[in-house]
Amino acid sequence: MLKLRIITALVLLPIVLGAVFYTERSLFVWIAGAFFVAAGWEWSTMIKGLKTPTRLTWCVVLFIAMAAAEFYRPQWLLTWLPAWWLLALLLVVLYPRATNVWHSAPVQSVMGLLLLVPSWQAVLLVQEKGAVGLEGPWALMFILLWVWAADTGAYFAGRAFGKHKLAPSVSPGKTIEGLIGGVVLALAVVAGVAWFGPVSADKTALLIVAVVTVLASVLGDLFESMIKRQAGVKDSGKILPGHGGMLDRIDSVTAALPVAVAGFSWLGLSGGL
Questions:
Q1: Structural domain that includes position 80
Q2: Residue 2 has what pLDDT?
């Protein structure tokens, strides 16, 4: 399994880096769009009671919503809509007690749009315009690095010190100690780049955005875990051998990127709206 994961990662990495660094926005839109539509198809498999024709219809609606977001670029989509993750946090905390509130096809259909459309638009915005003094591709990789550092720190801190479960009903493997380790490593990465790299932003404000973004990335992971647990599946799909589905790979990003852009906006940092 580990060998398969490594092979898949080695195939994906040049595709992702090539798209981020060496494509114009018009092409990047289609490449990123393919990733998000694939994730949307996987989401549709977990919507309660949806058959294939209805799933296809939902994916068409998702595509139209993504196209409209790209064409009109409404500011509220990335300034205020990311606040819906506060509701997602409540659902995760209350799981499984509040399952009846959201476990229906109409509600899950809307949740899927809230999950994917703002994150798609955030990826495009950062890749095009940049943030905190960094050019677009570097800014996008900088924010993704926060997420990856948080995930790495959580893994090792959880294994070394993990005793207290973070959300046992949703993801029994995650611990509070792992969460703290992930936040610490992510902040160390942010501080290192901010103080010694070409970042031009108020350092305190940037660290605040980074903390909120990292916490959001953990929430994105927990939220998808909750949906999968309720649907009775281990992975969202099988498109990525050794990794599961596309949604499994971008679950943290779906929360982190829009929250980061909203944070930039709220605190007046470049990269916001």
A1: 2-266
A2: 54
